[in-house]
């Protein structure tokens, strides 16, 4: 794995997101505050994804970092070894 590839924890994270708040979803897998960014991506060439919602919602954010619908889990983690 190269420095610019994510190192995912793999499982999805169930979180409640609130409107009017900005979240940054970790794309590198290095954050100690999964699924949110803590700056662990610095030096990797990866950047977190900004997430906002219109209404309060409980969602599953991707942990494997391979989803086709970032930042939301699409079940891809079930196909990874």
In terms of quaternary structure, the protein is single chain
In round numbers, the mean pLDDT is 91
> What gross morphology would you assign?
globular
Q: Helical segment tally?
A: 0
Rounded radius of gyration (Å): 12 Å
Strand content: 15-25%
Helix content: under 10%
The figure for the number of domains is: 1
Query: Span between N and C termini?
Result: 15 Å
Number of strands: 4
Q: How are the strands of the biggest sheet laid out side by side?
A: 1-4
Instruction: Detail the poorly predicted runs.
Output: none
Question: What does the main sheet amount to?
Answer: 2 strands, antiparallel
Which class of secondary structure composition applies to the elements? mainly beta
Order of helices and strands: EEEE
């Amino acid at each position: 794995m190269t420095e610019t590839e994510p190192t995912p924890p793999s499982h999805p994270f169930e979180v409640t997101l609130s409107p009017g708040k900005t979240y940054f979803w970790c794309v590198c897998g290095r954050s100690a505050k999964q699924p949110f960014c803590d700056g662990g991506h610095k030096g990797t060439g990866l950047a977190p994804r900004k997430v906002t919602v219109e209404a309060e919602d409980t969602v599953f954010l991707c942990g494997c970092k391979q989803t086709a619908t970032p930042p939301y889990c699409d079940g891809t983690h079930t196909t990874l070894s």
